[in-house]
Amino acid sequence: MEAKPGAEAPKPSLKKLGGAFVGLLQGHLELVGIEVQEEKARTFRLFLLAGVSLILGLLILVGLSAAIVIAFWDTHRITAILALCAVYAVVMGVCISRAIALAKQCAAPFQATLEELERNRERLLP
Question: Which chain regions cross the lipid bilayer (predicted)?
């Protein structure tokens, strides 16, 4: 008996479809892995630099504050201390507002993966 060509046709196309799907999945997983590694390295450097900057900035701030209070100790010590506290409060408010704005404007994580998935969806769907 001869095999009908129509009976065998769906199997190769299913294999091709499965292979294409596995290839797409592999590409996306590799892209996600690369993006995770890049984000991890960037975040580590950011925290390291921010921590060192914070420590050095606090040392400078303590030194300058002590110098100002010592300079005005005999005449206006309470005024100098209150003025320093007011300046620190204003700077803290500015920093908090900028941090909130930065957190709101950050890009979506895994943007390249999402764009690639969108391109694949457009190619696969009519």
Answer: 46-72, 78-101
Q: Is residue 1 part of a domain?
A: no
Asked if residue 16 belongs to a domain, the reply is yes
**Tens digits of residue pLDDT in 22-79:** 777 787 788 888 888 888 888 888 889 888 999 998 999 999 999 999 999 999 989 9
2 in a structural domain: no
Structural domain harbouring 40: 7-124
What length does the chain have? 126
Domain count, the chain: 1
Task: Please write the tens of the pLDDT for every residue from 67-120.
Answer: 999 999 999 989 999 999 999 999 989 988 988 888 787 666 667 777 777 787
